[in-house]
């Protein structure tokens, strides 16, 4: 595969995995041929995927041992059900035994699968606990967000628990998705058809501005690979996450909530932060990163 110009947004979960890791290093765990499918979807006579919409396995990245999970947004919006969630949780628990340099979560999900909501909610909580348990053992977890579904619902929470978040401009991150907000609160609250507004509120640029994303990258698989490789080098010696670390993070979020309490559009945040905010939404990724002072 020629990795150089492959769009991360348009790629499938498997293409993303094989494009990110070292060539021929990926070994899939619980592969599709085992046909571990959702029993709930089957009982509803709903379409199935033999991998239940998530690919998990071990590999190397720049020679370092990693574990990796990639959600398939094309299957039920990357939604989390019992089997889907168990595969991700199991991978994170495997990290405690194998001690990889990091775990990569390629998040592409609208949240919990409605057909198996209770099982999905339990799975999300188990994934969250597994992320924190791995971090307390000194194993970093990185979220890569750039797929068509973004990272919403429970997987939006999981992403925010990760040590680092790499996003493309096309990626989106939030709790409730635009369509959900519009359905519950009305189009006056959030017009999900206003794509520019959606990206100014949930997209990669505003999330990087707020510090929720660690790095903004181009919509190319090699760009995500380069960012993940740089992060691995920074986390060779990772001190365990402590309660004090979490409390400090909560304090920063509380301060930010107060600062932007009246904000309803990302453009307003840019106006508060940058002296010249006009045109930020149209900047290239490289120009935007220079504006923030990020190193190439």
Descriptive report:
- There is one protein chain.
- The chain is of the alpha/beta class and 296 residues long.
- It has a single domain, classed as 2-enoyl-CoA Hydratase, Chain A, domain 1 (Alpha-Beta Complex).
- Helices cover 43% and strands 13% of the residues.
- Strands 1-2-3-4-5-6-7 form a 7-stranded mixed β-sheet, sandwiched between helices.
- Strand 3 (64-71), helix 3 (82-98) and strand 4 (102-107) form a beta-alpha-beta unit.
- Helix 4 runs parallel beside helix 5 (153-161).
- The radius of gyration is 19 Å and the shape is globular.
- 45% of the residues are buried.
SSE arrangement:
Blueprint: H1 13-20, E1 27-29, H2 39-43, E2 54-61, E3 64-71, H3 82-98, E4 102-107, H4 117-136, E5 141-145, H5 153-161, E6 164-168, H6 178-185, H7 195-202, H8 204-209, E7 215-217, H9 221-234, H10 243-259, H11 266-273, H12 285-292
Parallel strand pairs: 3-4, 4-5, 5-6, 6-7
Antiparallel strand pairs: 1-2, 2-3
Helix pairs in contact: 3-4, 4-5
Short note summarizing the structure:
The chain has 296 residues and is α/β, with parallel strands linked by helices. It has a single domain (13-240), classed as 2-enoyl-CoA Hydratase, Chain A, domain 1 (Alpha-Beta Complex).
Gross morphology:
globular
Distance between the termini: 25 Å
Q: In sequence order, what are the helices and strands, one letter per element?
A: HEHEEHEHEHEHHHEHHHH
How are the strands ordered across the major sheet?
A: 1-2-3-4-5-6-7
- Which stretches are poorly predicted, pLDDT < 50 over at least 5 residues? none
Number of domains: 1
Percent of residues in helices = 40-55%
- The count of DSSP E runs of length 2 or more, i.e. the number of strands, is 7
Mean of all residue-level pLDDT scores: 92
What is the CATH superfamily classification? 2-enoyl-CoA Hydratase, Chain A, domain 1
